[in-house]
Amino acid sequence: MHYEGTLYRPPSEAGSLIFQVTIGCARNTCTFCSMYKDKRFRIRPMDEIERDIWEAAARYGNQVRRIFLADGDALILPTDQLLRILDVLQNAFPAAERVTAYGAPADVLGKSDLALTALRGAGLSMIYMGMESGSDEVLRRVHKGVSAEEIAAAGKRLKAAGMALSLTMIAGLGGKTLWQEHAVASARVVSKIRPDYLGALTLMLEPGAPLLKDVQSGAFAMLSPEEDLEEMALFLQNVTSPGTVFRGNHASNYLNLRGTLDADIPKMLDAIQTVQNNQNFKPEWLRGL
Ligand code: SF4
């Protein structure tokens, strides 16, 4: 099997078999992200992908239950090619229960409803989509390349096609100047989409992330742990998304939160308050991406 460069996947895909159907990220503009800055984007040729799949099938065959398509936005592939890949996967791994991938909002909007439904029917069961923020101003500043309205539209279309949706937001992305807007607007977009899963991680900048230069120059001020949790509390006070499984237990977070919206919001707000009162945030040395 062939892997190129560093491989990234969502935490919940830790046990999945991963195939790189693209290399890198087609956009690569987000200033908080360093994941694919060293890769030039390309779609891998179909014969290479098929070779990888059959090689893995010979080795793991019926043991494979979950498959993740990498890299940054596999949904950018032409629908025909994705359908072909899903068909080969189904034949190679008959016991597989799900195939998932990252999908950028623009890629979702670039596909027709018919195409999304066909992909769901062929086995693509869940998409991980980065919302990052529901604030247009924050999205503009971090060069996300889409508006909050487009993100909401993409999320709703994935759900209408029958796919599960795992949405990600980044706490602290508005910095000290836009934290309130970031919290309230993100709550608004999540409430519109009502994703199946919502993952919250906290802004951490690795070498290679363009935003790091703004932090070093003083143009962007990161939130303190206390401010970060204040922002999270504001988000939780404003969101309405019954049934969404909220995972705020990423290694980057100052406090692990987990629950189902909206039922567990009071419990999570209490947990935030307790940590604020005791000032016992996760120490920096325990945080990671
Ligand atoms: S956050 Fe996603 S879309 Fe933005 S550069 Fe990173 S991989 Fe690409």
Automatic annotation (TrEMBL):
The keyword Phosphoprotein does not apply. This is Radical SAM protein. The keyword S-adenosyl-L-methionine applies. SMART domains: Elp3 (SM00729). Its cofactor is [4Fe-4S] cluster. It comes from the Bacteria. Keywords: Iron, Iron-sulfur, Metal-binding, S-adenosyl-L-methionine. Residues 9-242 form the Radical SAM core domain. It holds the Pfam family Radical_SAM. It comes from Candidatus Pseudoramibacter fermentans. Signal peptide: none annotated. One of its GO terms (molecular function) is metal ion binding.
